[in-house]
Amino acid sequence: MKKSLPLNVFALLAASSLLSPVLADGARHHDDKSAHITVFAPEDGYVSGLGSRAFLVDLSIQFSGNLASTGVTPELTGPGPQQNVGPFPGTFGLGANLDHFPGLVVLLSSTRIGAGAGQNLSNLFNINTVTNQDSSGTEIWSTWIVGAANAFGVVGEQTPSRLFLAVVEGTAPNVVIDMDGNGEFNKKDLKLMGYKVISNTPKVDFVVNGGGALN
Predict the structure, then answer these.
(1) Residue 25 pLDDT > 90, yes or no?
(2) Are 117 and 107 in contact, with CB atoms under 8 Å apart?
(3) For 100, which of 14, 53, 75, 130 could close a Cys bridge (C-beta 3.0–4.6 Å)?
């Protein structure tokens, strides 16, 4: 990818459709949850990105309700001049995605900015779009391409990382606290913080590639 991205939403969505999904708990059904997350990238064991950036987090979330019940609105944004400009403007930064996907929780264990491993990163997502609406519910597609070096890995190093995802009822926290003190940030911590988790909670272990260079 070229350093000068802005993203092309159509190219990203087309590329995403070619990736095989990683499903939490080995399930392809919704069990008793009102939302189900499918992770397309990264996959378990992958070595992703270049120079500790340019890796992709790509997922779909199937909600059992209509679009209004999801709290999601379309977004195409990014840092600097891409923030809060058309056609689908939005804020861009650390914390919950209050203006476009308030219930989403995205954590990376290798996070070196903000609150570290407990920092909610959902407001860094570049794309939120509605990919389907029918009698079974609403599908949202969300995509984030990481542009900042040394934020989730180290240039020149291979950094193991765990991606954790969840959707909570209402507004997600900006920071997840390790409530049980076990060194991990997960669904249990969200529940102990008083949040109702309404989705499955996928975890993906991969490596942030610090090698290589972007042109």
Answers:
(1) no
(2) yes
(3) 75
Amino acid letter, residue 18 = L
Determine the Cα–Cα distance for residues 57 and 160; give it in Å rounded to an integer.
15
DSSP 116: G
Q: What are phi and psi of 13, to 5 degrees?
A: -65, -40
What are the sequence ranges of the domains in the chain? Answer: 9-22+30-209
Q: Which helix (H) or strand (E) holds 39?
A: strand 35-41
Per DSSP, the three-state class of 13 is helix
Q: pTM, whole model, 2 decimals?
A: 0.84
Q: pLDDT tens-digit profile of 157-175?
A: 999 999 999 999 999 999 9
Is 26 in a helix, a strand, or coil? Answer: helix
Tokens standing for 30? Answer: 């919704």
Q: Quick one: CA dihedral 170, 172, 178, 183, positive or negative? A: positive
Which residues 6+ apart lie within 8 Å of 81 measured at CB? none
Per-residue pLDDT, 2: 39
